[in-house]
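B., you asked whether I could sanity-check this one before it goes into the benchmark set. Here's the sequence:
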Amino acid sequence: MTGSQTLVSITGAHDIVAGGLRALLGSADDLDIVDGLPGFGTVPDVIVYDAIGLEADGGAELYTLIKESESAVLVLGRDLRPDLASRAMAHGAAGWISLEAGRDEVLRLIRRAADGGLALEQPRAAGVLGECVGLSQREVEVLGLITKGVSNADIAVTLSLSANTVKSYVRSAYRKIAAINRAQAVAWCLMHGFDPPGT
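And here's what the prediction gave me:
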């Protein structure tokens, strides 16, 4: 935080969403708002990234921000697209804010993120792929490859497993996510934070 002011960057948002955020955040005396990332040498305390940007570049910009920025990255998620916020959380975002959240909730989450306290409310475990249904790490790996369109035979080669072992992981994973075929499995994965094909 810079003195008593918190510098907040709004990134990846379309004009209407960015304008709404600017208006909402501009009403708080303790926040300074910038569009995009500020110039060299200025590090925002919090970056608010619109999750819709994941569709434009497959998450490249967001993942770079999470890995390389010293800022807390909060993702602005959409209730009708929970997969976007889930993907961001699975890749290390500090937390997420619903586009439907009220002013007070948005300000509270941004202030908590700036103070480093957001992890207390949104633990990293919440973003672990497949945790909600008890998927094992190997089942997550198998489903991740299925989601990317990889065949069972190629999954076996990629993960150094036998074809029968892959089939066993597929069956157990499908049972946990209540999928009866590959299409249902892929749909479930995309709605629960797995990276889509081509990423």
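One thing to flag: The two ends are 34 Å apart (CA to CA). Otherwise nothing jumped out at me.
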